[in-house]
Specification:
Layout lengths: L4 E5 L3 H11 L4 E5 L2 H8 L7 E5 L7 H10 L8 E5 L4 H10 L3 E4 L4 H57 L6 H15 L12 H10 L12 H4 L7 H7 L2 H13 L7 H12 L20 H16 L10 H10 L7 H9 L1 H10 L6
Parallel strand pairs: 1-2, 1-3, 3-4, 4-5
Helix pairs in contact: 2-3, 6-7, 6-12, 6-15, 7-11, 10-11, 11-12, 12-13
């Protein structure tokens, strides 16, 4: 079993020799005859697990040495026992306030010194064990959270692709719209109208839930969903029910968990109201302006933009320039004006996303 390393710091050679003689049978001893030397020794391997530090030394006293030790990441957690001939309570309080763990009075009594050292090393070992245990637990929690995040992402993607298999022309639509929505939220994070809502956690949950916006299409008959031409009035009425079907499906999923899950709440909002319009002419509920949840307002613009630039059996994909003009014209009618403004001001970034995940777009 390896010995604990003790650093003795004192400017008197006789004291260094006598303390070393007492400690050497039990510990690995390192010595320093000045404050500056002590700081160098303490930061080179083998690092001391405890320091016996003289208070009164020339050039740099023990208090200064301790202050430097506490400022260094390598040495800040090493317990320091002051060794001094001073019996003043004021001096003792000063040392303890700086971070010393104990005092040993000169002349040294070997039995007392050994007992104090053993006590502090035992405390340090216990503290180190707790730190290691906490770091292990934190690592395990982080690992489990990452695993849960991956499972959640895969599950969401699987559900979204289930809807996509019913409507094969959408291609990478869910991936592009997810990135559009996340970018919009990030760009508006400090905007006065949105900063109270758009914290990092909200944006992450928003991004996670966005792929479920069209999950309700699994409930739409194939003859309507896959129709190559324009829908009739009755067919479009049925198509519009995908918003309520999707919201209801997510609501039923919420009932299976005992506590509120943020990304499910946002997914339900998006699925239910991403076809609402700022001026109240959308569906299914004809919500107006700020009545429409923020999440659904982001998705409304992202969804329309991607539909405009994407090829469908009933239409070609529009150019980016034409799509921009259409989005601009719908400001304050279909879309929240502030969301529209930041979208148009950063249009190149949205084009970059569209091109990165290109799938039948112009």
């Amino acid at each position: 079993m390896s010995k604990n390393t003790i650093l003795i710091v004192d400017d008197e050679p006789a004291i260094l020799a006598s303390m070393s003689k007492v400690l050497t049978p039990t510990y690995q001893v390192r010595v320093a005859n000045s404050g500056n030397r002590a700081l160098k020794v303490a930061t080179t391997a083998p690092y001391p697990e405890l320091i016996l530090l003289d208070v009164l030394m020339p050039d740099m006293d023990g208090y200064s040495v301790l202050s430097h030790l506490k400022q260094n990441e390598i040495t800040q957690n090493i317990p320091v026992i002051f060794v001094t001939a001073m019996e003043s309570e004021e001096n003792e309080e000063k040392g303890l306030s700086l971070g010393a763990v104990d005092y040993i009075m000169k002349p040294i009594r070997p039995a007392i010194m050994m007992a104090r050292i053993k006590t502090q090393l035992t405390l340090k070992q216990a503290k180190d064990f707790l730190i290691d245990k906490n770091e292990y637990l934190e690592a395990e929690v982080a690992k489990r959270m990452k695993e849960n995040h991956i499972i959640q992402t895969v599950s969401i993607r699987a559900l979204a692709h289930l809807a996509e298999t019913r409507d094969p022309e959408t291609g990478d639509h869910i991936l592009r719209t997810q990135h559009y929505v996340k970018l919009l939220a990030q760009l508006l994070q400090k905007h006065p109208r949105f900063r109270k809502i758009l914290n990092n956690n909200y944006i992450e949950n928003l991004s996670q839930s966005a792929p479920l916006h069209d999950i309700g299409k699994v409930g739409i008959p194939d003859k309507i969903l896959r129709k190559p031409g324009q829908l009739s009035e009755d067919e479009f009425r049925i198509m519009k029910t995908h918003t309520e079907i999707g919201a209801k499906a997510i609501e039923n999923a919420e009932k299976d968990v005992k506590q509120s899950v943020e990304f499910l709440r946002l997914a339900k909002e998006i699925a239910h109201w991403h076809h609402e319009k700022w001026d109240g002419s959308g569906y299914p509920d004809g919500l107006v302006g700020d009545e429409i949840p923020v999440s659904a307002r982001f998705m409304a613009l992202a969804d329309v933009f991607d539909a405009l630039i994407s090829q469908r059996v009933y239409k070609p994909g529009f150019s980016f320039d034409k799509a921009r003009k259409i989005i601009s014209a719908k400001r304050n009618h279909h879309f929240d004006p502030d969301i529209t403004d930041v979208f148009l001001a950063n249009y190149d970034k949205f084009i970059a996303i569209a091109q990165k995940y290109k799938d039948g777009i112009s």
